[in-house]
Request: fold
Amino acid sequence: MIYRVRTISLTSGTTEDARALASKAAAYATEHFADVTVEILTNIAGPQHQIHMVTRCQSLAALETYEERRKEDAGWLALVEEWHTRQLGGESVDRLYRSVS
Reply:
């Protein structure tokens, strides 16, 4: 199993709105793109102005297919545009993990 964790720093004062829209995007991705599950995590301890979008899939090839399909999906692109228009987040960092058990 492959996990991509995208950590996104949130813009000051937008935490609740960002969490809501990110959750909507995660549900959309899970429903509309085969072979992936997306969840939004928040910190219990540490910086509270971050969210983590965790994408889970069977292989790196499946992740690449998902990435390509998102670039052409009107519903996904509308969610991304709303995120940017509302200026909910800033810098993001991606990390890839593979389960070993």
